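Troubleshooting entry. The earlier prediction with zinc ion gave an output that would not parse, so I re-checked the input for stray whitespace and re-submitted. Clean input:
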Amino acid sequence: MITLGIESSCDETGIALYQMGRGLLAHALHTQVAMHSEYGGVVPELASRDHVRRVVPLIRQVMKQANATLDQIDAIAYTQGPGLGGALLVGASVASSLGFALDIPTIGIHHLEGHLLSPLLSDPAPEFPFVALLVSGGHTQLMRVDGVGRYQLLGETVDDAAGEAFDKSAKLLGLGYPGGPALAKLAESGRPGLYKLPRPMLHSDNLDFSFSGLKTAVLTLVRQNVLDEQTRADIACATQEAIVDVLARKARAALAQTGLAQLVVAGGVGANRLLRERLTRDIEKRGGRVFYPELEFCTDNGAMIAFAGALRLAEHQGTKDYRFDVKPRWNLQDITRHYAR
Ligand code: KG4
Ligand code: ZN
């Protein structure tokens, strides 16, 4: 059973072929980072147009890489949401027309479900149940995962996502887009502990997060100081410390609350080195274990969509009805409810 995966929810076109029992056969990615960086953020219309240009050549590239032909594909999975409407439509329409032409089922995948399951692509892989810390540009959530489609929200951000906090603080420090990796790099030459930034909701008795106050505190530091290279690095260091500290402590609390020992980290911010070091140290010290997707599958990619599609299709949830829609706003809880019915 071979599944073609198509990801086009934001600024990356990702294509992959996944075979049940064999694993990932091939994958390819085109990132639009260079194109959007001129504008300091993603321009939705440009994103859609670029997906249109890239998606078919990338499918050809992946087929060639896997030495496979189109008639060997058994199903097509595409990101149905959440994300940018126009960008999502590119993947959905290509998946549906190709599915129609090949007379094979298609399935729309929730982007965050892709992120959530991506650590299962690694070896060793976690086993259900586990706690997942989902940290991307748009989401910060702690979920209890009991199986494919069995997700329970434990806590989430009440305002900015962790990735957004990285990106917005980076912008204040004059760094380009995307800000997360740039801020992390600058922080390497910063001196830890020089500036103390707030850790909102750290001591609340729930597993929710808040990051908007951090951005305001960074803005205050930026205004109060002469921004030479060392000061910028020191502020970057304090910002990263604050975000990582909150994420790590809440993740630890989620494990304690659920009584589970495995933590899975997914989404772009999961590529952050300090976060990885801190989580591994804190959680392994307490007898737990932390799992990360391969670095290349932390940020958006087609592999996680092909993989999530393959798992879903193993439970017969594809369709040969080639009408399609996309869901730019789509709560992960909603697919859980759908699954439970
Ligand atoms: O999951 P993702 O690729 O896209 C979304 O679905 O949002 O996450 C992108 C986010 C951006 O905010 C980016 O700045 C952040 O992940 N990010 C990082 C790092 N790499 C990516 N943040 C901190 N450190 C990194 N190394
Ligand atoms: Zn993502």
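This one parsed fine. The domain at 2-116+297-340 is CATH 3.30.420.40 (Nucleotidyltransferase; domain 5).
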